[in-house]
Amino acid sequence: MKEFWPYLKMLRPVKWHFTGAIFAGIIYGLASGFGLPFVTSEVFPIIFNQAEYAHFSKEARDVLTHEQMQQMTDEMGEVITTEQRKELGWDKDQGTSFWILILAVAILPASFAVRGLSAFANTYLINYCGVRVLEKIRCMIFSKLQVLPLSFFQKNQSGELVSRVVVDTTQLQNGIIFVANDLVKQPVTFVGAIGALIYLSLRESDLAFILLCLLTIPVAVLPIRYVGRKMLKKARLMQDESGDLTGILSENLSAPREVRAFNLKEREEKRFFNSVRRLFAHQMKVVKYANMLSPLIEFISAVGIAIAIYFAARRGVTLEQIVPLIFALYMSYEPVKKLGMIHNRVSQATASLERIEYILDAPIEVPEPEDPKPFHIDVGAIQFDHVSFSYDKSPTLKNVDLTIEGGQVVALVGPSGAGKSTFANLVSRFYDVQGGALRIDGRDIREVEKKALYDSIALVSQDPVLFNDTVIENIRIGRLDATREEIEEAARNAFAHEFIVDLDNGYETIVGEKGTRLSGGQKQRIALARAFLRNAPILILDEATSALDTESEQKIQQALDKLLPGKTAIVIAHRFSTIRSAERVLVFDDGRIIADGPHSEVYQTCPLYKDLYDKQA
Ligand SMILES: Nc1ncnc2c1ncn2[C@@H]1O[C@H](COP(=O)(O)OP(=O)(O)OP(=O)(O)O)[C@@H](O)[C@H]1O
Ligand SMILES: [Mg+2]
């Protein structure tokens, strides 16, 4: 339960709804816990005694049975005269008892009306609060996902995360609603019913034994605790498996081509079906524990009530005396049962909350500086000051020490896995350096506002991601406030305009998820158009390794020739043409920079570079 406390403060914006819900819950609880037993104890006697035997005193009515009172009434009716009857008020009594009867029977529906209305108000309002809080939690998770470090997404499968955002929040929401429905009503009902019990048994002190029956209630706490613990464990397993299932599904959906080309149907089915089977097993465990509690507690309460009936029978208590008490007794067991089920649902919801908090509490490894300084690029000089970095244990970059002057175009060359992409990623601050420092225009990038840093860098990645939107919106990502003219201009500069206007709907063509309706070369030119639009002083370009047709390649080269001048550019170069247009070449080998200089010089001095370059030629 305590896991939920931190979220209570989220109720602040809905405090009036919440207060209203609690108020309605209290009315409901009083109406059912205290009201119903009270009505049966006060009203039923009126209906069944008062009307017929009002001429007997209360004391007489308590001792005499119906038969006795009937017999005495008959006998007396034969001896007294009509005048005497009037004097005694027998006939008048018949008249008033009609109205008392009407009033008495009306109390029952009236108290149910109060109970029903307050139950509705309570449920509606508390649901409102629960759903609002959930909506907020969902948005919090989403916002958190926007700032988590890249490493988080490398550690966690996207499908698994989707499951946490969608399935676990839904589970949590169902739990909250279920719990909220009864959270106020049941404890109040319980207190009300106990109050009624005490009231009734104090009024007739020989009934006080009934309070002893309440001693069975603590016994019910044992199964509640046991089942709750089991529930938490099983719900955790269930939700984890459900996350795995979504993970498998989303991975599969992202690779329909591979599934067909490599004949993966059986392999994928096996993975999915097995997960479905495991999920079924965990689900049934949850179903088992969810439904075990209620019969258990009902049994315990039946024992309590049986004990009450036993004692009542031994003491010769009358039916109309015992019925309200049994009613009150039942009304005090019922909330215990409901609270037990609440505990169960809370355990289940806790499992989902834990999975949600996994995201909410994940550390932001690349934090915003405490005192972010405004940042404006002057020349765009990038200094690696004895930088080292590793993803896990083995170092990926070892003591890299160099400065890229403002406006310089640098080509990074080296074997696969040498650390080129890592070097570029550090400039964008996707990761923080672990040794040394990285400065732009003399400012440590850990000290500047992240947004300002991101704003000053344009990134063209190896495999650009397009959103399932129109071409124009996909280019606009480069700068969200760009006008249509600016976007078209950027597309022209990136040699993308021609192919765009040839598309079915021109700039309004939807590119499909991840841009699947465009060719590789077209996607890269869209990415370049974004970079033109962004016009940031620093450009990072991770060139695609996949070979492009000569025409695309030429166009991209022409675009780069226009884009690069005046910018500090780090180009991970796989193509000759790009390498040649760079003023400076950095040769990477196993996390170190083994050569640094203009192409002609490095070609002479670095055998590794000569080798790589010649192989391409
Ligand atoms: N997210 C990561 N987690 C762990 N290790 C990583 C991660 N990314 C890269 N590495 C490792 O770091 C090393 C350098 O990788 P990097 O991507 O920088 O190489 P690269 O020079 O860009 O290679 P390529 O030319 O193939 O793109 C490699 O050994 C790689 O396995
Ligand atoms: Mg790379």
TrEMBL record:
It is found in: Cell membrane. Residues 382-615 form the ABC transporter domain. CDD domains: ABC_6TM_MsbA_like. One of its GO terms (molecular function) is ATPase-coupled lipid transmembrane transporter activity. It comes from the Bacteria. GO terms for cellular component: plasma membrane. InterPro entries: AAA+_ATPase (IPR003593), ABC1_TM_dom (IPR011527), ABC1_TM_sf (IPR036640), ABC_transporter-like_ATP-bd (IPR003439), ABC_transporter-like_CS (IPR017871), P-loop_NTPase (IPR027417), Type_1_exporter (IPR039421). PROSITE patterns: ABC_TM1F, ABC_TRANSPORTER_1, ABC_TRANSPORTER_2. SUPFAM superfamilies: ABC transporter transmembrane region, P-loop containing nucleoside triphosphate hydrolases. Keywords: ATP-binding, Membrane, Nucleotide-binding, Transmembrane, Transmembrane helix, Transport. Residues 95-348 form the ABC transmembrane type-1 domain. The chain crosses the membrane at residues 21-39, 98-117, 183-202, 208-228, 293-313. This is ABC transporter ATP-binding protein.
